[in-house]
Specification:
By secondary structure, the chain is an alpha/beta fold. It has two domains: about 120 residues, NAD(P)-binding Rossmann-like Domain (Rossmann fold, 3-Layer(aba) Sandwich), CATH 3.40.50; about 160 residues, Dihydrodipicolinate Reductase, domain 2, CATH 3.30.360.10. It contains twelve helices and 13 strands. Helix 4 links the parallel strand 3 and strand 4. The radius of gyration is 20 Å and the shape is globular. The two termini are about 40 Å apart.
Length: about 350
């Protein structure tokens, strides 16, 4: 029997990618697609790439009806809304939130960075941070999953094997990352206006980005020690993609081939992490797919390990990883609906 799946917030880029991926999922039936600002529209009018394919009509969110009709609900809403709505879905429905409401173990961290108390800390306590490469076993029994942010997804996949192996320091980590404009969402704003972004590269939210505490939380869980991370995101004039470059201080002598061996060992059985040994990651090679390409180089003179990762911010950084989490939660093949090849060029 197919899983009955609903998406609350289907008119944004994350919601649109969920629909695109789930439409081709062999074990899923899409039920409700909600879009408060675009309600009562044929879905192909909301996303023209799905015209005459996805024929659902969007609707306002009736939580009681969605809870009765759905096995899994995805939230693709602004932060703060899912934590208010999730308790109304009852105890049977599995939830995957693409926002930040269920990413943090400590509600005080959420309040510090998102400037609001958490609305359902009891549900937060049971939620699992949805990075399969780090928390697969906990995801198998999870009912609520906080899908990771796009930047933490790339940064953590780049550095996690080296932190686990203990060959780098968990303090003084520098994450330099670049993202395409779609990461800012679909609502128009001056900062992502074409003439502001085109032929322009700029940092933003330096040392103040909300993804920094996510990265620090997961590093601390990997190492058992408090982590210090400097995170500098940049906006790049492209639509999709994230390239993260992570600088970690070496604890011991290590060569590039030895570091590559740690990557290969860590990700040998991962369906969506590709370890590069000759080439370096590039966003175009993961475009439209759930793949993450990782690589590493050693700077022996400076004493740095430099780990790199490229993802599509809307797929592995959002909707694709969310579907991967659903598959694990529901006992389905992990790659179901996700064997989509990257577009190139």
């Amino acid at each position: 029997m197919a899983l009955r799946v609903s998406i609350i917030g289907a008119s944004g880029y994350g919601g649109g990618e969920l629909v695109r991926l789930l439409w081709g999922h062999p074990h899923v039936q899409l039920v409700h697609l909600t879009a408060e600002s675009r309600a009562a529209e044929v879905y192909g009018e909301v996303f023209p790439n799905l015209r005459d394919v996805v024929t659902h009509t969007t609707e306002e969110a009736d939580l009681a009806r969605i809870a009765a009709d759905s096995d899994v609900v995805f939230f693709a809403l602004p932060n703060g809304l899912p934590m208010q709505m999730a308790p109304h879905l009852g105890h049977r429905v599995k939830i995957v939130d693409l926002g930040a409401d269920f990413r943090f173990r400590d509600p005080a961290t959420y309040q510090q960075w998102y400037k609001a108390p958490h609305a359902c800390p009891a549900l937060l306590a049971d939620a699992v941070y949805g990075q399969p490469e780090l928390h697969r076993e906990r995801l198998r029994t999870a009912r609520v999953v906080g899908n990771p942010g796009c930047y933490p997804t790339a940064a953590l996949l780049a550095m996690a094997p080296f932190l686990r192996a203990g060959v780098v320091e968990p303090e003084g980590i520098v994450v330099d990352a670049k993202s395409g404009v779609s990461g800012a969402g679909r609502s128009p704003s001056l900062g992502v206006h074409f003439s502001e972004v085109n032929e322009n590269v700029k940092p933003y939210n330096v040392a103040a980005h909300r993804h920094q505490p996510e990265i620090a939380q997961e590093i601390a869980l990997l190492t058992g020690r408090r982590a210090t991370v400097t995170f500098v995101p940049h906006l790049i004039p492209m639509t999709r993609g994230i390239l993260a470059t992570v600088y970690l201080r070496l604890r011991q002598r290590l060569t590039t081939p030895e570091a590559e061996g740690l990557l290969r060992e860590a990700y040998a059985r991962e369906p969506f992490v590709r370890v590069l040994t000759g080439a370096l990651p590039q966003t175009k090679a993961t475009y439209g797919s759930n793949y993450c390409d990782v690589a590493v180089r050693i700077d022996p003179e400076g004493g740095w390990l430099i780990a790199m990762a490229a993802i599509d911010n809307l797929v592995k950084g959002a909707a694709g990883q969310a579907v991967q989490n659903m598959n694990i939660m529901c006992g389905l093949p992990e790659d179901a609906g996700l064997r989509v090849l990257p577009l190139y060029p």
